[in-house]
Amino acid sequence: MSNIYSEKEIVEGCRKGERRFQELLYRRHATKMYGICLSYAGDRELARDIMQDAFIKVFRQLDNFKFSGSLEGWIRRVVVNSAIDTLRKRIKMENRIDRDIIEIEARDSNGALSDMTVEELMSFVSRLPAGARMVFNLFAVEGYSHKEIAKNLKISIGTSKSQYNRARNLLQEWLGD
Length: 177
Prior knowledge:
Elements: H1 7-15, H2 19-41, H3 44-61, H4 71-94, H5 118-125, H6 130-141, H7 146-153, H8 157-174
């Protein structure tokens, strides 16, 4: 049924608050966006919470979508930002960021991560501490620079680099390298 409506028709229906179009938009993008949420959250329950918050934001902010890029890309940005916001709040609340990690210096990778399938890597990534997992996802998966990550997470560039290296080191340790 969702294929009988164009993306523009679905967006316009959502903007008018029509429930059937909201459901169509959700169904069209939910599977992929849940995967993104899960990669940030590390567990299914938190991923579902992030997903719910993200789609509420999508529907509230849909007037900001101008059809100048892909709708999926725009929704992805909302989902990633929701994940970042949720995890930032959790980290702050639980005080998980290890202040000593700021001093860790980067070391070269020996290629352990490049030999893994995406599914294998994501199973290890989900085990990372929240701060390291978030930075790893933003840098390695989403392609953000450490400068962009620092700005988005309100941390220093050094902390971003350290958290990324912490994630890489843990992954390498778990892989036996």
